[in-house]
Design a protein that fits this description.
280 residues, C8orf32 fold, four-stranded antiparallel beta sheet, globular
């Protein structure tokens, strides 16, 4: 058996750490650390500590502007002043798939990230300040929620949102066919947030036709959502893209065994036939 490369060893160690983290009870999952493990995928020497320290520094930067006894509204306003007006955190100017705007360490460094990554930063800073905020995964957009129905959009400088605003955000992303309902505003679980970050990263890698990195994202998704059969199918397809035909066939056949009524059964069967002639 050939020796494991430095990158392969780093990837295996990172996935093991990530698996241990997401196996914790929900309140004990460190959201920032999980996002940094995701950012580490395919990168050999990423140390999460500087990014975690940066979040501590951001919280302290907000804290020095506060007075003892300041209420939730004042703390949130100050947090937004620091993050969005003083430091300039915001979304990318061009909404195109880019892996770097899904990597928390680079978002902290460059102050540019997707709404979900900006939300993670706001949540982590808010939690350090004692605020009970949570993520809200709208279809096509990610925002932050708080007490008494408070809704905030980190991608718009922390703008206060109404339900009509949330419907407008959904419409902008997905068109008129999706209507806001109460279930869309529930607090997002930390595993759900991490899975959504990985999906964004996967989409960026697929757009760049970086099959190896996309495969890494699928492996992370399988850790967070181990029973979702689509990840097995996607891994099989990407294994084929990277020339690992035998492993690809095993995954795709297992996918069809587990989902005999899959809507894409004919397509997957056709791919199996193509890969069958190239097995190794």
């Amino acid at each position: 058996m050939p020796a494991m490369s430095g990158l392969d060893a780093a990837r295996a160690a990172n996935r093991s750490r990530f698996a241990r983290l997401v196996a914790r009870p929900e309140p004990q999952i460190d959201l920032a650390l999980g996002a940094l493990f995701i950012a580490s995928e395919g990168r050999e020497d990423l140390d999460p500590e500087p990014s975690l320290q940066r979040l501590d520094e951001l919280a302290e930067r907000v804290r020095i502007h506060l007075d003892l006894g300041d209420g939730t509204g004042r703390i949130i306003d100050t947090l937004h002043d620091v993050l969005y007006r003083e430091l300039g955190f915001g979304p990318p100017r061009r909404p195109r798939p880019d892996a770097d705007v899904s990597r928390l360490d680079l978002v902290l460094e460059r102050r540019t990230g997707l709404p979900i990554n900006l939300s993670i930063i706001e949540l982590e800073v808010a939690w350090r300040l004692g605020l009970a905020l949570h993520g809200v995964g709208l279809p096509g957009h990610f925002i932050v929620g708080g007490p008494e129905g408070l809704l905030l959009d980190p991608a718009a400088g922390g703008r206060l949102l109404t339900r009509d605003d949330c419907q407008a955000l959904i419409r902008r992303s997905l068109g008129d066919g999706v209507l806001l309902h109460e279930g869309m505003l529930r607090p997002a679980r930390r595993r759900e947030i991490l899975a959504r970050v990985i999906r964004n990263l996967k989409a960026a890698h697929l757009h760049a036709r970086d099959w190896s990195q996309a495969l890494g994202a699928v492996e992370l998704l399988r850790i967070v959502e181990p029973t979702a059969p689509d990840h097995l199918r996607d891994r099989g397809l990407l294994l084929g893209r990277t020339g690992q035909w035998s492993a690809a066939l095993a995954d795709l056949r297992q996918y069809l065994d587990e989902r005999p009524d899959a809507a894409d059964r004919a397509d997957v069967t056709q791919v199996i036939g193509l890969f069958g002639g190239m097995r190794n």
